[in-house]
Amino acid sequence: MSVEHVVGHHDTLAFAGALEAKSEHPIAAAIASYATAQLGSSVGEDGVDRSLEVTDFRNYAGGGVAGVVRAPHSGVNVGAKVMVGRPAWLEQEGVQAASAELLAQFEQAENSGATAVAVAWNGAVQGIIVLRDPLKDPSAQAIVQFKELGLTPILLTGDNEGAARVAAQAAGIAPENVIAKVLPDQKVMVVERFRAEGKTVAMVGDGVNDAAALAAADLGLAMGTGTDVAIEASDITLVRGDLRSAATAIRLSRRTLSIIKQNLFWAFAYNVAAIPLAASGLLNPMIAGAAMAASSVIVVGNSLRLRGAN
After folding, report:
1. Does position 309 have pLDDT exceeding 70, yes or no?
2. On the CB side of 98, how many CA atoms lie within 13 Å of its CA?
3. I need a labelling partner for 90 at 20 to 30 A (CA). Which of 226, 249, 260, 309 fits?
């Protein structure tokens, strides 16, 4: 995800960048990185760091972030309470609604498939930051692989409907399988609803907001490039940030289960056939020992076929 443009007050990017540097969310990381690139280093020629300081930082799941931002050495009680997040959440927190011009910029961005966040201080929305999250090249291939495995891919996102619709179309996900603008607790509810309908649910996620849903799913797969919370809540961690690795993990798991069943069959078949013969004295001990060794070799050899799985 990367910032496309910023509109509004000239301090919008500086305040938002300082605040979002405290968060691990992908939107926050993109804003903080863009602010650093656009505003340059805050270290002066005298070697003193004059970057904005943030206190009382709070992260509101599914809403945004808030904190007091102040210039360094300006005093403890001197600063502005800055909030970055959804306009609806800001209004719930008592922030004055955005101007018609900023609201039009926000709606235009979301309708184009971008993601927009509002930046507020002094009790009013002062600016809008527009971000875009281009689809990774392998994502469409991953969706094809999921379908080949007999799975139904569903896009479950807290992002706006415009961005979700554009991403789903590019990835090859059916419009009816797009669920957008869901809060973290609502993601859990969606997972539990599918499970209550008798479906087996696999959840792939990488963020803090995905952790609860990852834990609630039958199979949780966390991207290794994501947050530690998501990794801890999942059953499998995908080391690469490539969605195709999720399909590979499922394919390999199915192959492993098949191999286990084959090994159990041959192990039982050997014993069911050989034990009566040995008990009746019809099986030479030397042959029985060789047969037991051969059964172990067969099981190991059959398991080694997994090395060729992809």
Report:
1. no
2. 29
3. 226
